[in-house]
C-alpha cells in the first residue's frame, strides 16, 4: 500500500463533526482486516483523542457474537465486510439509528433504507475479459447473456466465494429464486468453469483458460499496477444490470453502546474525504462520496453509480437461501 495516505488524513480534523480531545474509549468490532483498518483507526485516535480498541474477526462471526452478547456487548461500532451481514445485524435490532447528517446525502446504493448503517466503501461486480480474445463487439450487455452459445466454455466464476454468493443473493432479490436457478443451470449447461476465487479467475483469463470472468472490480488493478501490459480488461454490463451489483462494507453504531456520540463520530470519520481517498487509491474500492481522487485503474465515481442496479441492501442478508439454491444447482 502507498504511504501517501497519511498526508491527506492530516486534514481530517476539519471534516469531523465537532472533533474533541477526549479520554473516551471505543470498542470496534471489525470484519475488515487489521492491515486495512489500523491506519484509519490510528489517524482517528490522533485527531480526536478517542482511544479505539479493535476486535478483529470474521464478519459473520462477529455478527453472531453481537447477538449472543446482547445488552452485555462491549461493542460500540460494528464494521462489516458486506451488506448481507449489515442487513442481518440491522434486522436483529442490534443497531442504533444514525444521525441523519451521516447518511442523508449518500446515494441510495451506499446506505441502508433503515438509516441504521452506511457503506464505507463499494466493491462492484463486473466482467473481466481477455484483451486478445474478447473484442468489444462481443461483450455481453447483461450477465444473463452469458448463457448464449457464443460464450460456451469461455466464462469463469467462483461459486464458493462470498462475493459471488452476495451477487446471487442480489439476483434472487431482484428476479426471484426460480429465474436465478434457471440462470445458474443454464450457465452450467453452457460450460462455465469454476475457480477457487476471484484472483484465480483473472489469472485464468490471462493464461487463456477462459476469455471472460465474473469478479470484483478491485482484483484486476492489483495486477495492472505492477504490469500495465497485463492482458486483461474489465467492463460493466449495461447500466443497472444485476451483474454490476455494488456490494459494500458498512459501519454502524451498536444500539447498546453508552458512547453513541463518539461512536457516530467514528462512523462519520470513515466516510470523510481523506478516509475515502484511502479506500479509493490504496484499496482499489469505490468511495461513497463524490470529489475523491479518481483511481485511474477503475471506473469513476459517477460511472460506478450509474452502472449499479438499485437494490435494498438490507435484503442481501439471506445467505442461507442462496446457499440452498447453489446446492440445488449442484454448485457447492
Tally the beta strands. Answer: 9
Low-confidence stretches: 1-21
What level of helicity do the residues show?
Answer: 25-40%
What integer is the average pLDDT? 92
Q: Cα distance, first to last residue? A: 34 Å
What is the succession of H and E elements? HEHEHEHHEEHHEHEHEEHHHH
Return the structural class. Answer: alpha/beta
Number of helices: 13
Which architecture of the largest domain does the CATH hierarchy give at level 2? 3-Layer(aba) Sandwich
Report the sheet with the most strands, covering strand number, pairing sense and barrel closure: 9 strands, mixed
Q: At the third CATH level, what is the topology name of the largest domain?
A: D-Maltodextrin-Binding Protein, domain 2
The rounded Rg comes to: 20 Å
Under CATH at level 1, the class of the largest domain stands as: Alpha Beta
Q: Hey, roughly how much beta strand do the residues contain?
A: 15-25%
Shape: globular
Number of domains: 2
CATH superfamily of the largest domain: Periplasmic binding protein-like II
Pfam family, one: SBP_bac_8
GO molecular function: metal ion binding
Family: Belongs to the bacterial solute-binding protein 1 family.
Organism: Marinospirillum alkaliphilum DSM 21637
What topology emerges from the helices and strands here?
Blueprint: H1 6-9, E1 25-30, H2 34-48, E2 51-56, H3 59-69, E3 77-80, H4 83-91, H5 100-103, E4 118-130, E5 155-157, H6 162-175, H7 177-189, E6 193-194, H8 198-206, E7 212-216, H9 219-226, E8 232-235, E9 246-253, H10 260-270, H11 273-281, H12 301-307, H13 319-328
Parallel strand pairs: 1-2, 1-3, 5-6, 5-7
Antiparallel strand pairs: 3-9, 4-7, 4-8, 4-9
Amino acid at each position: 500500500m502507498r504511504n501517501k495516505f497519511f498526508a491527506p488524513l492530516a486534514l481530517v480534523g476539519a471534516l469531523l463533526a465537532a472533533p474533541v480531545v477526549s479520554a473516551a474509549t471505543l470498542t470496534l468490532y471489525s470484519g475488515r482486516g487489521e492491515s486495512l483498518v489500523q491506519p484509519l483507526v490510528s489517524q482517528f485516535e490522533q485527531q480526536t483523542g478517542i482511544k479505539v480498541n479493535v476486535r478483529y474477526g470474521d464478519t459473520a462471526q462477529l455478527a453472531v457474537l453481537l447477538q449472543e452478547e446482547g445488552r452485555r456487548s462491549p461493542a460500540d461500532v460494528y464494521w462489516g465486510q458486506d451488506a448481507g451481514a449489515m442487513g442481518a445485524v440491522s434486522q436483529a435490532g442490534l443497531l442504533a439509528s444514525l444521525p441523519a447528517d451521516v447518511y442523508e446525502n449518500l446515494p441510495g446504493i451506499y446506505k441502508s433504507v433503515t438509516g441504521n448503517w452506511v457503506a464505507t466503501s463499494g466493491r462492484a461486480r463486473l466482467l473481466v475479459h481477455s484483451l486478445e480474445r474478447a473484442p468489444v463487439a462481443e461483450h455481453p450487455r447483461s450477465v444473463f447473456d452469458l448463457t448464449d452459445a457464443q460464450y460456451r466454455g469461455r466464462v469463469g466464476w467462483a461459486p464458493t466465494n462470498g462475493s459471488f454468493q452476495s451477487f446471487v443473493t442480489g439476483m434472487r432479490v431482484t428476479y426471484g429464486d426460480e429465474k436465478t436457478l434457471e440462470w445458474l443451470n443454464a450457465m452450467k449447461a453452457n460450460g462455465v468453469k469454476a475457480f477457487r476465487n476471484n484472483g484465480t479467475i483473472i489469472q485464468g483469463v490471462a493464461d487463456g483458460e477462459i476469455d471472460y470472468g465474473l469478479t470484483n472490480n478491485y482484483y484486476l488493478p492489483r495486477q495492472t499496477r505492477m504490469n500495465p501490459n497485463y492482458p486483461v480488461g474489465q467492463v460493466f454490463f449495461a447500466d443497472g444490470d444485476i451483474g454490476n451489483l455494488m456490494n459494500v462494507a458498512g459501519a454502524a453504531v451498536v444500539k447498546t453502546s453508552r458512547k453513541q456520540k463518539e461512536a457516530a463520530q467514528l462512523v462519520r470519520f470513515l466516510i470523510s474525504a481523506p478516509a475515502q481517498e484511502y479506500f479509493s487509491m490504496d484499496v482499489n474500492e469505490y468511495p461513497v462520496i463524490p470529489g475523491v481522487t479518481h483511481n485511474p485503474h477503475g471506473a469513476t465515481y459517477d460511472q460506478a453509480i450509474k452502472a449499479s442496479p438499485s437494490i435494498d441492501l438490507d435484503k442481501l442478508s439471506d445467505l442461507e437461501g442462496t446457499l440452498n439454491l447453489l446446492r440445488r444447482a449442484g454448485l457447492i
